[in-house]
Amino acid sequence: MKLKITFILLLIATSLDASIKDGKMLYDIHCKTCHSIDMTGGEGGDFNMISYTKTKKELFRYTLDPASEYKNFGYVASAMPNLPLRVEEIENLVDYIDSLQPFKKWMTKSYKKKEKISLKK
Ligand code: HEC
User: Which domains, from first to last, does the chain contain?
Assistant: First the structure.
C-alpha cells in the first residue's frame, strides 16, 4: 500500500515536472520577448511578480484570450496578442509560471490572515 502511494506520488511529481519543462520551453519561444522572469522588464509584466498575485485559472484565462480578458484584469487596453497555442500548451505554460513562486500559497495564506486581524481593530 505504502509503495503504491509512493509510486502514484512519484508519477504525479514527474508529470508536473515534465509540464513545467515544456512550459519553460514554450515561454522561451512565445513569451520571453515581452515577459521577463528576473525583473529585467519588457512590454508585459514580470512573470515572477504575476505568479504571486494570479491563480492558475487566471493565468490560463488571460493567456488563452487576452483580447476578451484585459478588462477583467484592470487594463484599459491590451497590447498582448492572442497566441496560437493549444490548450495543453497553455496548461504547461501556466504550470511553469506558477512554479516560479513555490511558496505562494503559504505566503498568500499568511497575508490574508494578517489582513483579517487588522480588520478587526
Ligand atoms: C507582444 C508582447 C507579448 C507577448 C509575446 C506575450 N505577452 Fe502577455 N502581456 C503583454 C502585455 C503588454 C500585458 C499587459 C496587459 C495587456 O496589454 O494585455 C500582458 C499580460 C499578460 C498576463 C496578465 C498579467 C497580469 O497583469 O495579471 C498574462 C497571464 C500573460 N500576459 C501571459 C502571457 C504568456 C503565457 C505569454 C506567452 C505564451 C505571453 N503573455 C506573451 C504582452 C505580451
Answer: 2-102 (1.10.760.10)
pLDDT digits (tens, 9 = 90+) for 46-69: 999 999 989 999 999 999 999 999
Q: Whose CA is nearest to atom 21 of ligand 1?
A: 44
Ligand 1 centre distance from Cα of residue 48 (Å): 13
Q: Which pTM does this prediction carry?
A: 0.85
Among candidates 19, 34, 22, which has minimal Cα distance to 83?
34
SS3 90: helix
**Which residue has the least CA distance to atom 40 on ligand 1?**
31
Each residue of 1-24: pLDDT tens digit? 788 888 888 888 888 889 999 999
Using the mean position of ligand 1's atoms as its centre, give its distance from the Cα of residue 32 in Å: 10
Rounded to whole angstroms, how far apart are CA atoms 83 and 66?
9
Distance 120 CA to ligand 1 centre (A): 37
